[in-house]
Model the fold of this input.
Amino acid sequence: MPKQTLLTPGPVPFTGDLFPREAVSHTDPTFREGLKKLQNDLREVFGVSGFTAALTGSGSWGAEVAVFNLLSPTGKAVVLSTGLFGQRFAEMARLRGAQVHVVEADPEGRVPFGLLGEALRAVKPDLFACVHVDTSTGVAIPLHQVLEFVRATSPYTLTVVDAVASAGAMPLELDGLADYAFTASQKGLEGPAGLAPIAVSPRGLAHARPASWYGDLTRVWAFWEKGECHHTPSVPLLQALTRTTERVLAEGLRERERRSREAYAFLREALADGFTFPPEEVAAPTVAVLYPRRESPSTLLLRLREAGIIAAPGIGPTRNRAIRVGLFGKQALLAQELAEVLRGALA
Done:
């Protein structure tokens, strides 16, 4: 059996040299200094000037912390959905007790700005949430255009961005646009899973009304900014994330995005005879969703595995219809190998 290479849309491969050789206390002064460096690097990743941190938990925990702090049981939310993860955020908000209005993208993944404006004016939401790149569909929204539209239409609405499949792989520049953004450590930042980096604006922090002790943003802020005791974080994961984030920024966010876009363009051209793709104007550079015309997705996933490549099946709206491939960071360098295996499977 050949060595297995992860080409899933997360987790991505990482190296063992990221982890420390011995246990370190979360109160250790050297570790605390490392957290400050990580915060500064995360500001660059998110393109913000405000508060950043990395929660011990998955990207889904990053989403729930937004819900627990920025929505009340009597609150109202508008969620823009381009796939499974927009629907998941809406479900979290409903479980909080909030009134939730979902605006669906059109069948090809385009943002219906007319419907979004109608919803914002009618609902007058406390919170608006969107997913920059939904890994279930491989659709990317025009993030700045959406956030600027929301700010202009409903200026008092708090804005939340799911940047799980874009942070670390694309420039975000969210300062003044997002009140809360979150990602996960195992995708664009190329680290091990288990952390949810976040960025919170001063307005977001001022509106925090926590409904969870562990997810209390005010306590999280006090831990990261003042060293006050709150919880024991995952020190090894934070040390690993510090190293991977430093490497990502040394490479450059624009360079990483360029490489992903070129890899996706290559796949689109090389596999045009056997697959269909989302329209180019909505396709995310980091997640390629391939719809086979002849073979079943399960057959192709098996052929890839036999060749040593682990891709992902479709989920949510693409379940049993597509295979999904990650093009984060170094994954993009394997586009040619992937295309050769798939062309062989369809021959």
